[in-house]
Amino acid sequence: MPDVRHGVLLLVLFVSAMTVTPRVDAQPAAEIVNGVADMPVWNVGDRWTYRKRVGLADIELVREVIEATPAGYIVRRTEKGDVVRFGYYGPDLSVVAWVANGRVTWSVSPPLQWFQWPLREGMSWLNAGGTAAQT
Q1: Coil vs helix vs strand at 7
Q2: Which residue from 81, 115, 121, 135 has the fewest beta carbons nearer than 10 Å?
Q3: How crowded is residue 36: how many other Cβ atoms within 10 Å of its Cβ?
Q4: Alpha-carbon dihedral of residues 77, 131, 134, 117, nearest 10 degrees?
Q5: What are the phi and psi torsion angles at 16 (to 5°)?
Q6: Full-prediction pTM beyond 0.90?
């Protein structure tokens, strides 16, 4: 039977892996007026840099908008300078799919809305989409 300390260590490593500290290199976030923030507009070249801790290692992630059209956005994600995947987002910044090595690795239908625009203080929402992991 596994030692309880081993389980606690695995839990700590898992939580550490989920820790991400964003540093935004793009334009400032949408202005908040009277507790309301409109959806930001992403432009080609907008870039966000994050630091993720995996166990004891710090990994830098960069997301950069490489295509912006009325139909949505394509965002390149790099890790340690290497392209890891591309994210496809709808015009409302909802997540449509992730692609790595030319293959869809994750998709959701309907698109996953991380946010309901405009954002308002105290607001909450649910997403009823289903995900499909590809192998």
Answers
A1: helix
A2: 135
A3: 14
A4: -20
A5: -60, -40
A6: no
In this structure, the dihedral spanned by the alpha carbons of residues 77, 49, 89 and 105, taken in order and rounded to 10 degrees, is: 30
What span, in angstroms and rounded, lies between the C-alpha atoms of 116 and 34? 17
CA atoms within 13 A on the CB side of 94: 18
Structure tokens at 33: 């007026």
Give the dihedral of Cα atoms 5, 10, 13, 15; nearest 10 deg: -100
User: Is the separation of the CB atoms in 79 and 59 below 8 Å?
Assistant: yes
Query: Which residue carries 């930001």 as its tokens?
Result: 40
Q: How many CB atoms lie within 10 A of CB 72?
A: 18
Cα dihedral 107/89/46/42 (nearest 10):
-170
Hey, what are 85's tokens?
A: 């995947």
